[in-house]
Amino acid sequence: MRKFICLTCILLSGLVIFGQKSSLKGSVADTTDRKNLQYTVISLLRTSDSVLAKFTRADKSGNFAMEGVDEGKYIIMVTHPYVGDYFDQVELKAGIPTDLGRVIMIPKSKLLAEVILKSGSPIRIKGDTTVYTADSFKVRAGANVEELLRRLPGIQVDKNGTITAMGERVTKVLVDGEEFFGSDPGIATKNLRADVVKEVEVFDKKSDQAEFTGIDDGVKDKTINLKLKEDKKKGYFGKIEVGGGLKDKFSNSMMLNAFKGKRKLAGYGIMSNTGQTNLDWQDAQNYGGGMDGMNMEMNDDGGMMIFFDGGGDDNFRGGRNGVPTNWNGGLHYSNKYNNNKNNLNAGYKFSKVNAPGITTTFARNFWPDSSWNTNTINNRFTSTIKHGFNLTLESNLDTMNSLKWTTKVNNNTSRTSNNFYSESLTEEGDSINNSRRTSNNASDNNSVASTLLWKHKFKKLSRTLSVNTDLNWSQSKNDGLLYSLNSFYKGGVINRRDTMDQQNINNRENKSIVTKLSYTEPLIKDTYLELSYSFGYYNNDNERITNAGDGNGKYEERIDSLSNAFIFNRLVHTPGVNFRVNKKKYNYSFGLSTGFSHFIQKNVTEDLEYKYNFTNYFPRATLQYKFKPSQNLRLNYNGNTTAPSLEQLQPIRVNTDPFNIYIGNPDLKQSFRHSFNVGYSSYNVLKEKNIWTNLSYTFTQNAFSQFSSVDTNGVRTYQTVNVDGVYSVNFYGDYGFKIPDTKWRLGFGPNLNHNRNIDFVRDPKTNLAVKNSTVTTGYGVRLNVNQYVENKYNFYFNPNFSWNTSKASVSTNANAEYWMVQGWFGGEATLPKNFQVGTDANFQVREKDPRFPANNSFMTWNANVVKRFFKNELDLKFAVYDILNQNRGYQRNFNSFSFTETYYNTLKRFWQVSLTWNISKNGKPAQF
User: Fold this and answer.
1) For strand 703-710 and strand 744-762, is the pairing parallel, antiparallel, or unpaired?
2) How many CA atoms lie within 13 A of 130 on its CB side?
3) Would you say 502 and 482 are in contact if contact means Cβ atoms under 8 Å apart?
4) What global pTM score does this model have?
5) Thinking of the domain 2-113, which architecture would CATH place it in?
6) Coil, strand or helix at 135
7) Could you give the 3-state DSSP secondary structure of residue 18?
8) pLDDT tens digits along 119-151
9) How far apart are CA 638 and CA 620, in angstroms?
């Protein structure tokens, strides 16, 4: 009887327990259209061992339910063939039904209460790296990487191809973490197709040694890394374009890539006179690349230069110094051997550019007791030939040691001729001076830059030793002829004439070797110490020879007052100590280096030697705090010095511009710059919202500025001097979001540039130096509106509004205030029969300044029609550039004593027909 009662109790207990099982219900919808998802699979897995406990399917309305589920903790997994997987953790309690409500199908996981973003998310933030999934940002078939970058939130690309990311200019573009054709970013962004890119990474690249040690050494380059899709690394792809139009216009380009696993072989070539080039961005600016829209630059004299250039479809259809005809090409090879232990990366580039240009300048000059106008026109022609070679060899010698050698060799020869006329007039229109001069110059420049890095890891984790050596050599030889006829007036009547007929020879050679040794040691958990020591030797040699002409084409008489040989040597020892702490949610580092500098200046011509020493302290600190995996805050401080250049030091008069004569200053000290930076980034995957902000503040001790004086003939003499009180504040913000249930994406953000500079001018009445403070401020706000409907159309509109001021303490006549609106818009539409139409325009509206005659508001409008054949492999394109014929190059420059507007000839309206063959073979023949 007792056994029967016990058995009955056990059975009743089991029934009670079974009766207390839990239930689960909910519904499923997608994140885009909020529509219910039918037949979605819902699975419950035990948290302890991930074994499937129960599963069901959603009905036609997207509803699901599970009954009789045991009490406990589970992982719920919701899967659908057309939507990303959903993971969450749920706890079911006996007898208590659980209602999950509406499950929105987005890629996420809440294992152990932490959100982990799925790799297919449009944007991910990993530490200080922002990662964009390329396929989440649709572009047209055949689009290049540059078009893809324009679609990415927080990244701006102007018509010149210059990239700005999170408010900072991008200086490097890598492919799979490696340089592609050396340091020219435009080759990758303009020639690689967007559909071969898997991810776009944006980050601040540190030096190789800093990446190894984890200690920031102050070296930072805003960098974009293009990670290619695995299937695109098998086979070959590229494009060949042939185009031309009337008035002898031609534009031909080719790029082919052959990839096989780790091996990359690529080549490109361009022949064009329509502005399409692949020069470095710096070269593009010099030869007329056109800074599409507004760009600000601060000068040593306290001024601000603002560039406005019209835009076209490629680099030089906006122009600053004319429109070049160019021929350039290159080869790239990289491979990894021996199970990725050895890496080779090599490249060669060639370019030839012929660039004619006409520059016209109107200037208003202000001095404490007077003002006058200066008008100039310069007809210029430049021909440049460049050769560049780069090589990187990297080897993992064993599990503890690695070696990396990088070298770059460049040769640049150029020939330049100028025909120049200038005149200065009083406010009443009377002549002060004028000059007619011609010059011809030939230059030959060579450089070698080489870096060797050895890295060693000890058996103890995080204990490392590394040695980095940089070797640099450059040589420049210039030989030029100058002829100038100068006239000076008094009371509007000619008072004196003089003639300059001289040969200017300038030979420069720079050499340096810098070696840094770094040792890291783990102290306690997550805490590390770095001890470092660097040694640097710098040698700069400059010889200027000026010979007078005899009127018969011979230049044999040396002008001693304009000739000089000068040597500038520096020896720097820098020991340092740094601490670094790495935690899960934050990391920080701080440290101090001390630089002991020994300077030697040798005036070889006069047999004088000047020695002096400096001791500088270089504090640095960084902090990064991660609120969430997609939200972080960064703070940084750095201090660094800049030594004066040899040209600034050499005590000689440079009279190549007879009305602006420069004199070197051997008493210059090195400057010290303090830089503070705060950055915040956040991305919300659920709402597709991004926030990027960056605030920087810098102030400079012993900053390089100018001391100027002007005589009664209107001749300005100036030299570089050290000043204090120079600072700048810059702020950038970007907020973007996608409007729910639409294809529209909006973005906007403010920017601020505030700068204070100090310079000195000589008061002609008292002959005393007067300190001048110039404060320049630019306020702006950007708007970004775009919509992309796949296989139908896309549209974008990006206006920028700004207000600029400049105020000088010495002469209020030099003050300036004006507003400006500039930006661009465009779109494309896909039509039946494989036709596509597209248009884009760059517009600039500026407040007119009554001090200058020209109207500087214009719009550059382009349009095209494309017909595609053979499954989008072949494109036939008809395009018209600058339909309104308003394209122009323009620059506004204001400083403490002048306000200048400069105009450049540019490529005007033209049309072109082009044929483009998109080549692709990835493991199988291309389909036709």
Assistant:
1) parallel
2) 24
3) yes
4) 0.73
5) Sandwich (2.60)
6) helix
7) helix
8) 446 777 776 788 888 887 777 777 788 888 877
9) 5
